[in-house]
From TrEMBL:
Region: Disordered, residue numbers: 1-67
The keyword Disulfide bond is annotated on this UniProt entry: no
Organism, scientific name: Micromonospora arida
GO molecular function, one term: sulfotransferase activity
Record has Transferase as a keyword: yes
Source species, domain of life: Bacteria
Extent of Basic and acidic residues compositional bias: 1-20
Gene3D superfamilies per UniProt: P-loop containing nucleotide triphosphate hydrolases
Alphabetic keyword roster: Glycoprotein, Transferase
Domain Sulfotransferase: residue ranges: 107-303
Name listed for the protein in its UniProt record: Sulfotransferase
Length: 354
């Protein structure tokens, strides 16, 4: 009798009979995903309503309600991971800033842009130099998004240096945001700056794929280009430093970020030109050793050659490209006068001949 009672209790708890079939009205146990019983991307193995996943329990054993909505997707998981990583990094910087004394040095140089121009690859190339030590992570965004946190928080991201060592960070948003050049000039009067520029047509579409991969772009590429001017104008009515402005400027500036000359003009107005090195992404890909060597000389670092120049490409077009020949021609016509102005500004030949 005792054994039969245990068998019945076990079947009642699991919601299954001896054949493994769920009893009517029973709910499945959580597959995975933590204390609230929400699976991270894996649907329940069975459901009492065909075609629909079972609802989670109203309350977890801890007393809290589980999160609502669909199961966590890959996009949401990446967003959560990025947010947690940034939060941990910021918390460590706050901890170092709260200690007595100097929290850390200021950077010797910055990679300031542009976005989707190969700055992640360049970041890893520079970090591999034996006399370079990196900050706590890429894209600290102090001079753009987090300027209100103060310079001690910023310095808390950088390591203590031995004699002869240098440190840096890379935030591609710095090139584009209009408030950054003056802030940088006031805080880093002796620093040097590296800029990578890519064919603005290719950069715009790569930017679109990047934004869409995070689930932030519901429009097609053509519609997003049509909506860009209104989106940016509406978001920046209260100035470029609001949360709404940062969200739009970072995510929806597909064509605006490719107008490089106007961005460099803002930097040249605050920083002497001899402290800004500008290179083409295409040159870094075609001749990585030569382009890298030029940057090391500009930064005053000893010559160093990497065994492999790895390209860190994180965004690919998973389907049929939306960069149609018509859109390519449209963007090419839009960027033509801006490219000509860039060539005159830097003394370059036509940087991206059609």
């Amino acid at each position: 009798m005792v054994g039969r009672g245990r068998d019945r209790a076990a079947r009642g708890r699991s919601g299954r009979d001896r054949g493994g079939v769920p009893r009517r009205g029973a709910r499945p146990r959580a597959q995975s995903g933590g204390r609230h019983g929400v699976a991270l991307g894996d649907p329940p193995k069975w459901s009492t309503r065909p075609g629909r996943p079972c609802r989670p329990r109203r309350r977890c054993r801890c007393g809290r309600r589980p999160p609502r909505g669909p199961l966590v997707t890959g996009v949401a998981r990446r967003q959560v991971t990025d947010r947690l990583r940034r939060g941990v990094r910021a918390a460590r910087a706050w901890g170092r800033a709260a200690r007595p004394g100097e929290p850390g040095p200021l950077p010797d140089f910055l990679v300031i842009g542009g976005q989707r121009c190969g700055t992640t690859s360049l970041y890893h190339h520079l970090a591999a130099h034996p006399q370079v030590r990196v900050a706590s992570g890429k894209e600290l965004q102090y001079f753009s998004v987090h300027h209100g946190r103060g310079v001690r928080w910023y310095r808390g991201h950088f390591p203590r240096l031995a004699p002869g060592e240098r440190t840096f960070e890379a935030s591609p948003y710095y090139l584009f945001h209009p408030s950054v050049p003056a802030r940088v000039a006031a805080t880093l009067p002796q620093a040097r700056f590296v800029v990578l520029l890519r064919d603005p047509v290719q950069r715009a579409y790569s930017h679109y794929l990047h934004t869409r991969s995070y689930g932030l772009e519901p429009l097609s590429f053509a519609d997003a280009l049509d909506a860009e001017e209104e989106r940016l104008a509406r978001a920046t009515r209260g100035g470029p430093d609001s949360a709404a402005a940062h969200r739009a400027l970072r995510n929806y500036s597909y064509a605006a970020r490719g107008r490089y000359a106007e961005q460099l003009d803002r930097w040249f107005a605050q920083v002497p030109r001899e402290r800004i090195h500008v290179a083409r992404t295409e040159d870094l890909h075609a001749d990585p050793a030569g382009t890298y060597g030029d940057m090391l000389r500009f930064l005053g670092l000893p010559a160093f050659t990497l065994e492999v120049f790895t390209r860190h490409t994180r965004r690919v077009d998973p389907g049929v490209s939306e960069l149609t020949p018509a859109l390519r021609d449209r963007l090419g016509a839009h960027f033509a006068p801006h490219n000509a102005r860039l060539a005159a500004l830097l003394g370059w030949p036509d940087p991206w001949p059609g």
